[in-house]
Design a protein that fits this description.
The chain has helices at 18-32, 37-48, 63-73, 90-93, 127-130, 134-139, 174-177, 191-200, 203-208, 216-227, 233-246, 260-276, 284-300, 303-316; strands at 4-7, 53-56, 78-82, 94-99, 104-109, 116-120, 141-144, 147-150, 156-161, 182-184. It is of the alpha/beta class and 321 residues long. The chain has 2 domains: 4-220, P-loop containing nucleotide triphosphate hydrolases (Rossmann fold, 3-Layer(aba) Sandwich), CATH 3.40.50; 228-316, Orthogonal Bundle (Helicase, Ruva Protein, domain 3).
Length: 321
């Protein structure tokens, strides 16, 4: 069974300036995914922060549509893998196959060799198949038969996950969850927004026809700009207080708080969030806006379950440390 597919991408012919292009990307994605501007901004910030995105929700609320739209609007080569119970690691990373002409093994790259990889329903596959993405997501490389292959510079995984209480779902292990910088949910639309959706028809076809508004060079510039955004010492103390609160006994259901690496990721996406808001320095509201998406799935194993916990942690920690 073929579980992979290409997502056709056409380069942007006349890219706008960096700031205007970033606004255009957010606006275009928001027009495709009706009523989900906050989630769209988090997805774009995740890409700028060089992270990966986990989307958790019930089927049919737009998870795959968002992934398709991101690939098209950002003009990055993209592929999709449908995760199933019979998926093998080699179906993702690729295989070494014996060439009868040369009498040698030739490596046949798998769908992971792309810029945007849509891992659709990632928790429908068993842990062995899920683990094929661990090295790729952390180090932007894969190792097959002792040989290491480098992935594209802008390698970005968008994984969709069904709720773990559904039949046939395998919960993602902690090591896999930690590879995702952010986790978001889409949820149901407000009545007036759902009415507009029903009147307009399928948004997936709209996403597949979206015009490209960026290019790889522009994404690199956004990342460079975000890395230069100032984070004051006072805000570092605030981040440290949030991290320490998660490590207190009884706070996280699993008993483990956020790691220092999670703290670094939190600062990285806070910088990207500030860039999206045209600021040259991070403010407390940036940290608070991205804390839940960064911490929720790491602390509870579920994006939805972690949302309330993270909000309570924010409310307990004063800004003045």
């Amino acid at each position: 069974m073929n579980t992979t597919s290409d997502i056709a991408i056409h380069p942007a012919s006349h890219p706008a300036s960096d700031g205007h292009a970033l606004d255009q990307v957010v606006d275009a994605l928001g027009a495709i995914l009706i009523g989900k501007e906050h989630q769209v901004r988090l997805a774009v910030a995740t890409l700028i922060a060089e992270g990966h995105l986990l989307i958790e929700d019930v089927p049919g609320v737009g998870k795959t549509t968002l992934a398709h739209a991101l690939g098209h609007v950002l003009a990055l080569p993209a592929r999709r893998v449908q995760f199933t119970s019979d998926l093998l690691p080699g179906d993702i990373t690729g295989l070494s196959m014996f060439n009868t002409d040369t009498r040698e093994f030739d490596f046949k790259p798998g769908p992971v060799f792309t810029s945007v990889l849509l891992a659709d329903e990632i928790n429908r596959a068993p842990p062995r198949a899920q683990s094929a993405l661990l090295e790729a997501m952390e180090e932007k490389q894969v190792t097959v038969d002792g040989t290491t292959y480098t992935l594209p510079e802008h390698f970005f995984v968008i994984a969709t996950q069904n709720p773990t209480d559904q039949l046939g779902a395998y919960p993602l292990p902690e090591s896999q969850l930690d590879r995702f910088l952010t986790g978001i949910t889409l949820g149901y639309l407000a009545p007036e927004e759902e009415k507009a959706l029903l009147a307009g028809g399928s948004r997936l076809s709209v996403a597949q026809q979206a015009n490209p508004l960026s290019n790889p060079e522009q994404i690199s510039r956004w990342r460079a700009q975000a890395s230069k955004i100032t984070v004051a010492d006072r805000l570092l103390d605030y981040v440290l207080a949030l991290l320490n609160e998660t490590r207190k006994q009884g706070v996280a259901p699993g008993g483990h708080g956020l790691s220092p690496r999670a703290g670094l990721k939190l600062i990285a996406i806070a910088r990207a969030w500030a860039l999206l808001n045209h600021r040259t320095m991070v403010i407390p509201e940036d940290i608070q806006a991205v804390f839940g998406p960064v911490a929720g799935h790491r602390l509870t194993g579920s994006v939805k379950a972690g949302k309330t916990l993270c909000q309570s942690i924010i409310e307990r920690i004063p800004l003045d440390q």
